[in-house]
## 1
Amino acid sequence: MFPTRTTSTSASTIFVNAAAIECGVYLAPSSIPFAGLGMYAGNRSISRNDIVTYGDILIPIVERPWHIERRLSDQRNFLWDEYIWNADTFDFTDEELGEDLVSDVAMASPGVGAAANSYMSMINVDDYPIKISRAGLPPDSPGHGAFTIYHGRSFYATTPIEPGQEIFVSYGEDYFTSRTHTYGYLPMPDRDYERADHILNTGLNIIRHNKNITAKGDDESLREEIWNDAHALIKDISENIFNTSRILNAIPANISVIEDILEDGGTAYQDYNRSVKDLKWLEEHGQCMDNIIVGRSTIPDAGRGAFATRYIPSGGLVSPAPLVHIDDIDNMVMFMEHVYNEDDDLVPNRRGEYTWQLILNYCFAHHQSTLLLCPYGLLSSLINHSKENFNTKIQWSEDHRMRHPEWLEEPIKEWGLEFHTGLQIDFVATRDIEANEEILIDYGSFWQKAWDNHVEEFRFEEHRSEYYRPAYELNELVFNDDFELRTEKDRAYELDGVQMHCRRWYLHQINKRLVGDQACNIVRKLGEDSYLVRAIRWKDDNEDRTTSFSQDHVLFWGVPRDIFYFEDLPNSRDIHQQWAFRHPIMIPEEMFPNVSLFVLLCVSSCHSLLS
Ligand SMILES: C[S@@+](CC[C@H](N)C(=O)[O-])C[C@H]1O[C@@H](n2cnc3c(N)ncnc32)[C@H](O)[C@@H]1O
């Protein structure tokens, strides 16, 4: 059962303006004290299982600690660490994630994943599985590797959500238990709140039914006194003795509300009313986030894009975007070669070839600064570029919306290492935009020049064979009977960056010595859905297990095609290729008010990127 909210939606609020009527999701100060901004449901009741937000993307940040190790003196300041998700969270198979990526991949999730807060007892949304695709680009497109393949992170309601209610996503218990220095000992769902409810119910029962008290004439004030003392004792123990007790921390500080809280569902919901805002408040303090939705871009080679969900008048807000700042663009370098150092450890070859993390393409930069400003917000990361046909621009948000507007007047070195966000931009319509129009901004002349050069120099035939398909595409096609699988007589899959495997459960039932999935090749097709297969078995033929494994080959007859799957070879995906386009979006000159104050000289690689 859910408590009913104390604030009510007045009819006059709803009819204030069109945006208030239509806006389905708001960005506004969170109901959690000191939590910054949060996301709220707008003017609609959401039933359980309804979609709350559509199609967010995930942008992989690959093995960053390895790439920057011993290179930057201060690694502490990577603000994205507070906004990214461990790739394990998403239940990807190894094939989906790419074998080389499994070891250390963080996923920036710029929509709900970054903008919504987590309040473990009031989680009201969960996400659908992520989809993986190259957005339908032709195989020879210069756009491959320049945008993320991970998309479709839609969130649905796990409980009914009222209009104006804050949206809470689960960051997972580990997020809080590993950050006690920031959050203290927060109660966790189920066990801690249930125990707290039990303590409070027991206390109330003792007081209600205590015979001694009744014998003394059922003295109401005496009962209240005892109950007050008991509560004060519990709070004292919790604050001064066991402040690490998550259970005691669930006991409300205000004794007068305890009975209501227990009646309304228990301590887990004690902040429920606070988390539901009046729509008038949201209109005043918040900004609409769902004026855009994801779709296939109308621009060739651009991948996905953002489209207006409703009419947006000239000067109207398209989307708000708080900014994650990175003081030094070199944080985003990815070295492409490995070498062994004097201790025989594999390390990045810092003199060798390098490229940039994909997220660079989603961030704003200025050619005279090392600063990167990476926006988050609902789907605003999907806004593409057009020099001629832009209909939107960025501008600094009003001061009162930003936590630290004063940063704009201070040198980066003063605030660049701050471990929280402080700035925000708004995407604003430069003309009337009709529903379903693609939202486009001008990324700036540096970007345009870089893209034009990329397209001119891109030589598909030198970069990829015409047969290349990443493993995640082959793994869908493998179930399609019409899709021709290559045999050993054909071109080897390895030449195209992938390896074929056979599933363990099938091989094992025929040959018990095969205990894992095996790399395998098709020798020939025997009949419909029947193949002769060579499994490449790695066997340990030395009893004492001191020698290395040697390769063995085992043949299997009559193998059906659904036991095949593909894996990418290490670093074979588009995002790892040096030919993949990398360039940040440029911050317009007029938004860089005091360039001389902002400047940190680009001493190393950022020079070659931005000049
Ligand atoms: C901020 S992201 C925009 C979202 C991206 N299209 C996606 O699918 O995730 C910037 C990237 O989009 C692509 N892009 C944006 N505008 C483009 C354009 N006019 N032409 C080609 N590619 C474009 C480039 O790959 C660029 O690096």
Note: The radius of gyration is 29 Å.
## 2
Amino acid sequence: MTALATGTGGVGSCFISQLTWLSKNLPSTRLSLCYISMIDKALYRPDYAEIDFDTALFTLEATGVEPPPISTIVEYLAAAPHNVILVDNTSAISLAEAYPAFLRRGISIITPNKKAFSGSYQLWQEIFSSATSGGSYFYHESSVGAGLPIISTLKDLVQTGDEITRIEGVFSGTMSHLFNKFAPTSGSGGKWSNIVREAKELGFTEPDPRDDLNGLDVARKLTILGRLAGLPIESPASFPVESLIPAALENVANADEFLRSLSKYDNEMEEKKLAAERSGKVVRFVGSVDMLGKKAKVGLEWVDQTNPIANLKGSDNIISFYTKRYGDMPLSIRGAGAGGPVTAMGVTGDLLKVLCQLR
Ligand SMILES: NC(=O)C1=CN([C@@H]2O[C@H](COP(=O)(O)OP(=O)(O)OC[C@H]3O[C@@H](n4cnc5c(N)ncnc54)[C@H](OP(=O)(O)O)[C@@H]3O)[C@@H](O)[C@H]2O)C=CC1
Ligand SMILES: N[C@@H](CC=O)C(=O)O
Ligand code: NA
């Protein structure tokens, strides 16, 4: 059995550590690594020789070569003498769009990358049909709520005949961290731009934090959950999404320049916070999918100080499923929704699920 890993950042490096742990503590998994890459370096051998887990990242950095095109990677893996699982720990759209090509060739996929599952509805359908025709599997638990059991719970609800009426909550570790620190229910909050930088340093944000602040990351998660619950959402751009990017910074060239300039616009967020406080509320970044009304939305809401959403800590997500069976009291899941170790846990957990099915 072989795992192929791409992406060696916050999540990818924790995933490699967890592979090392598995190989020592669950040797019956008999996993090996035959390909590992970052953006501009890849490590692999024509004879699929095992790459040592302990030294993989160092060897990749020191001796990696230019990665081959994705079509070559598909061929390389399809010709492997054993089952192969692609573990995509990147946020690359190019790789996400190639999932059907991997799945059709019998290569299973595990990923925290939201891009494929929240891309066009056509890509979503192709992923399902390609897995069926290739006899392969795909799991993406960490694409929503990091390692929290959100997708597996939703699938269980749907596959046992419950009907989802509404999904709502805080779906972003970054946004949770920002608002818990910027507009706490007691005491005064910190400076918006400083907390944004801190969220990036803690590994909560997307590679480009603007993808969190513009609401797109939450919109992608709602697209995934809405589709799994039975709503054919066309794309994350097909419903209202509020962006927290100051208008004057919408076109800055890159994330570094954006972060450098953000403090000039701290007063815009300060005003939003004070408006909520004047009504005795706190401001939070909330998302919802109304399955009955066939609508989704993402944006700022004023919530009561006693609302569980107002009282999250750290990078906590809280995601509530309202269903026919659960009635007025939703099934709610809460816990850290971002960060390398917890996200990699969801990826490694998915890997174990695929291994059970490939045996
Ligand atoms: N961080 C978190 O808390 C969570 C992250 N996720 C998702 O996990 C994924 C990874 O996030 P994170 O680890 O934080 O991001 P990082 O920016 O830390 O790491 C991304 C990695 O992907 C590599 N990469 C990018 N494009 C390619 C490519 N085309 N081919 C090969 N490698 C590539 C980068 O290479 P290089 O090192 O050369 O730049 C880097 O190693 C994202 O999809 C994110 O949305 C999901 C839930 C939570
Ligand atoms: N940037 C995302 C990472 C997890 O999906 C977040 O902050 O939630
Ligand atoms: Na999850």
Note: Residues 2-146+341-358 form a domain with the Rossmann fold fold (CATH 3.40.50.720).
